[in-house]
């Protein structure tokens, strides 16, 4: 009987599913019209989803060969630079302007955490897409 293993590319895409759910929960939590009980239920469901995908990843994980390691190293370097540049840009958008002790920002303080989660999710997707691209090309 053949054991069903997850390839590295599938593992990377599966890692994005709990993060997408986390992004949705954070976005719903920022909306004022959602009740506190809905936020609690969504948080519990999110924890269950994250635990499920963590166990699934541990159970069906495939060993990484040398070419996948080199591709992951290249992709991780690209993603690290992407995170650094996006945080620098993000820092300029939230830096306060002090005009007569009035602090104004381009992004409301309420949404700073949401934008950080969006950046983390986009970098995770970029990692999966770049790995698939480089793996297909054989680089």
Q: How many domain regions? A: 1
What number is the mean pLDDT? 77
Beta-strand residue percentage = under 5%
What is the approximate shape?
A: flat
Portion in helices: over 70%
The largest pleated sheet is described as: 2 strands, antiparallel
- Individual helix count: 4
Report strand order across the widest sheet: 1-2
Amino-to-carboxy terminus distance: 33 Å
DSSP strand tally: 2
- As a whole number of angstroms, the C-alpha radius of gyration is 19 Å
Order of helices and strands: HHHEEH
Weakly predicted, low-confidence segments? none
The structural class is: mainly alpha
Which helices and strands appear, and what pairs or packs with what?
Layout: H1 8-30, H2 36-59, H3 66-94, E1 97-99, E2 102-104, H4 112-137
Antiparallel strand pairs: 1-2
Describe this structure in words.
- The chain is mainly α.
- It has one domain (8-137).
- The chain is 73% helix and 4% strand.
- The chain has 4 helices and 2 strands; from the N terminus they run H-H-H-E-E-H.
- The chain has helices spanning 8-30, 36-59, 66-94, 112-137; strands at residues 97-99, 102-104.
- Strands 1-2 form a two-stranded antiparallel sheet.
- Helix 1 packs antiparallel against helix 4 and helix 3 (66-94) runs antiparallel to helix 4.
- The longest helix is centred in the middle third of the chain and has 29 residues, at 66-94.
- It is flat and about 50 Å long.
- The model has no long low-confidence stretch (mean pLDDT 77).
- The chain crosses the membrane at residues 12-31, 37-59, 71-92, 112-134.
- Keywords: Membrane, Transmembrane, Transmembrane helix.
